[in-house]
Amino acid sequence: MNTESKTAPAAIFYITKNGCELAGRVADLFPAAEVIKFNSALFAKKWAETGKIICIMATGIAVRAMSSLLEDKKTDPAVVLLDEKGDFVISLLSGHIGGANALAKKIADGIGARPVITTASDVQGKVALDMWAEAMGLYVEDFELLKKMSARIVNNKDIKVKVEGLSNNIKLPAGLVRVKTVREADMIISHRI
Q1: What mean pLDDT is predicted for residues 29-52?
Q2: Are 91 and 114 in contact (CB under 8 A)?
Q3: Domain 11-118 belongs to what topology?
């Protein structure tokens, strides 16, 4: 997961009185979380410290606050956004690797809201290769290739995979088809680095 080095507790930002009340309910789900009245400087500080940012505000405010802070999907924190009534919890940034999709679902379950997940693999009920690789303890050497392979899955195209060596017993999810040679493969899973 991309946020393992960011050890500070979740930061919950709000703007309005109603947002503050909802932040308290959300904080009950994360006992160590900090509830903070939004300002840009504190937002930037928490961005560098925590792996989870929860915003109770308009989407535009959150997007503007984080636009200059965005670096990479492997290092940016999970960001979820709630409307101040707590009807919807939107996975806004770092849905898979950062854990925003899981975070949105946890909050939605905890407060009786509806999670809004827009990643194609989740919407289609297909494997998210980055999450599968993490769950299997695999190291991804080329994230650009992984993105291309993920696009193939959500576009109903199989990925030919050569599995070799100690990794040979690995169970492949739907959409990944085992092939015999490297020459046939779109992707290789190997015990060698």
Answers
A1: 95
A2: no
A3: Rossmann fold (3.40.50)
